[in-house]
Amino acid sequence: MILNRPGIASMSLGKPWVHNLPDKLLQAAVHGFQGIELFFDDLDCYAHRAFNGDHLEAAHQTRTLCNNLGLTIICLQPFSMYEGLLDRAESDRLINDKLPRWFRLARALGTDMIQVPCNFLGPDPQTGAARTTGDRTVIVRDLQRLADLGAGAGFRFVYEALCWGDHVDTWEASWEIVRAVDRSNFGLCLDSFNIAGRVYADPLSASGKTPHAAADMAASLQRLRAAQIDPSKIFYVQLVDGERLASPLDANHPFHLAGQPARMSWSRNARLFPLEESRGGYLPILDIARVFFDDIGFRGWVSLELFSRTLADPSPTTPADHARRGIESYIKMGRLLQWQDHAIMETIVDVSCQSVGTEAPLQHRL
């Protein structure tokens, strides 16, 4: 019996406007992935390239492609920059205008889940004034409003802390909010990169680590064990590593972007698949994964959500290269974590890679 299912984000197979969504979906399926986190940017690109900007038609066709390839669309994401806005008119616009459109797209895609990252809007770039509030009452009320509208339409939301978030930048903060929202259709995404990226890693440091990285990471994981999170409240997990940079990500670093938090710049340019130590991976991914699977007992979608400068490589092999790296990482993780299904997974991948060629033009392969 397969206990966990490998997924990958569409953005993690090639940058939109550089690599086509259908090609990326094909490579995900060929290499053994079973699920896709679908990024709106990919859908937007596909709509404008193939359907005169008709997002709904692009969503229907994406669903058809995924059905033909045996892929499940795990979620549509990211429904971002929403909760805790000081501009309440903008909050209402997102609820009254954007959300119904996303419901229509998600329904056309055949998924019942929308991912919501914590707000990282940051201060106004002109005035420096805050644009979000850290008031948990406001944040929770906003997310309850979202969840209640979703429940009426048959949708779930999965909430994720980002290590550069304005006010929610740890797993503890996101879990506190999920508990306070207290809706059955509102759950948690736990991401190894964002967990380690906040308490263990510091791209502004010459070492790439916080001053007490090992101790702080161990304490965070012990709190995660002790929290006794109901696995059913974790809608899926993400396993990703990060690259140790050769120099601090300060104003002189090529990844630096004025006004953007260093951890966000690092994330956008230098994530790695788990266990890619040869490429500079250094986060304690196995320690985090053991808490997810052994201590909490999570079973379900395991998504590899990679962002990297390598995704912009215009080579036509970029989607295949990243799909191969991702599934090799997933299988290695399965072995080291002693998942009961890792041998089955290897067989599935072997059969998939043999049954569909990767060189023929896409229209001859679907």
TrEMBL record:
Transmembrane segments: none annotated. The keyword Iron-sulfur does not apply. It is an enzyme of class 1 (oxidoreductase). Its EC number is 1.13.11.27. InterPro entries: IolE/XylAMocC-like (IPR050312), Xyl_isomerase-like_sf (IPR036237), Xyl_isomerase-like_TIM-brl (IPR013022). Keywords: Oxidoreductase. Pfam families: AP_endonuc_2. GO terms for molecular function: 4-hydroxyphenylpyruvate dioxygenase activity. Residues 27-328 form the Xylose isomerase-like TIM barrel domain. This is AP_endonuc_2 domain-containing protein.
